[in-house]
């Protein structure tokens, strides 16, 4: 959360790497396969055949139990989209695929990765970035953070680490290093 995953994923994408964005998949699912099950679980949160994010946010109201309920609906759908993306990339001959998965360790998805890149930053920078988001409160941030695997644990299980706290140029160099290292393995 607010570590720079999406920005770093864009760096891979600019280099021609196939990148699957789980957040984008959620947005697409909110206009498709997730609409009906979410409406059943949270009546009144859809409009015009899609999930209304503002209404859904109000229904969740920072309640971690409700968020977990939503995740039980959405995570399997995202995983299916991720697998579909990977299969299509393989058919297209992509030598490397990047899967931008915000809750990689929390969902156990790291188990089916060949290589794990953890994007990180200092706790102070993360807090600043998160609290700058519209509607975010210190209390909600702390609740969300408590549900995540600690960053130190994620870094310990990573094959590569990109620290976005050192700026864009440093992250770009890290991306190049990772691509050289992983290309040598292919």
TrEMBL record:
<feature type="binding site">
    <location>
        <begin position="2"/>
        <end position="7"/>
    </location>
    <ligand>
        <name>ATP</name>
    </ligand>
</feature>
<comment type="pathway">
    <text>Cofactor biosynthesis; coenzyme A biosynthesis; CoA from (R)-pantothenate: step 5/5.</text>
</comment>
<comment type="similarity">
    <text>Belongs to the CoaE family.</text>
</comment>
<dbReference type="GO" id="GO:0015937">
    <property type="term" value="P:coenzyme A biosynthetic process"/>
</dbReference>
<keyword id="KW-0808">Transferase</keyword>
<keyword id="KW-0963">Cytoplasm</keyword>
<keyword id="KW-0547">Nucleotide-binding</keyword>
<dbReference type="GO" id="GO:0004140">
    <property type="term" value="F:dephospho-CoA kinase activity"/>
</dbReference>
<dbReference type="GO" id="GO:0005737">
    <property type="term" value="C:cytoplasm"/>
</dbReference>
<keyword id="KW-0418">Kinase</keyword>
<dbReference type="InterPro" id="IPR001977">
    <property type="entry name" value="Depp_CoAkinase"/>
</dbReference>
<dbReference type="Pfam" id="PF01121">
    <property type="entry name" value="CoaE"/>
</dbReference>
<comment type="function">
    <text>Catalyzes the phosphorylation of the 3'-hydroxyl group of dephosphocoenzyme A to form coenzyme A.</text>
</comment>
<keyword id="KW-0067">ATP-binding</keyword>
<keyword id="KW-0173">Coenzyme A biosynthesis</keyword>
<dbReference type="InterPro" id="IPR027417">
    <property type="entry name" value="P-loop_NTPase"/>
</dbReference>
<protein>
    <recommendedName>
        <fullName>Dephospho-CoA kinase</fullName>
        <ecNumber>2.7.1.24</ecNumber>
    </recommendedName>
</protein>
<dbReference type="GO" id="GO:0005524">
    <property type="term" value="F:ATP binding"/>
</dbReference>
């Amino acid at each position: 959360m607010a570590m720079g995953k999406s920005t770093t994923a864009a760096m891979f994408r600019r280099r021609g790497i196939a990148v699957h964005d789980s957040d984008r998949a959620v947005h697409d699912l909110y206009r498709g396969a997730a609409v009906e099950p979410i409406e059943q679980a949270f009546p009144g949160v859809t409009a015009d055949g899609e999930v209304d994010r503002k209404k859904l946010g109000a229904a969740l109201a920072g309640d971690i139990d409700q968020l977990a309920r939503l995740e039980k609906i959405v995570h399997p759908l995202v995983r299916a989209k991720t697998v579909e993306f990977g299969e299509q990339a393989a058919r297209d001959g992509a030598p490397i695929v990047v899967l931008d998965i915000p809750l990689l360790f929390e969902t156990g998805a790291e188990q089916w990765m060949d290589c794990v890149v953890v994007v990180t930053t200092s706790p102070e920078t993360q807090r600043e970035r998160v609290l700058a988001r519209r509607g975010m409160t210190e209390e909600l941030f702390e609740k969300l953070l408590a549900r995540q695997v600690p960053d130190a644990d994620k870094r310990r299980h990573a094959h590569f680490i990109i620290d976005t706290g050192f700026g864009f140029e440093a992250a770009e160099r890290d991306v190049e290093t990772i691509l050289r290292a992983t290309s040598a393995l292919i």
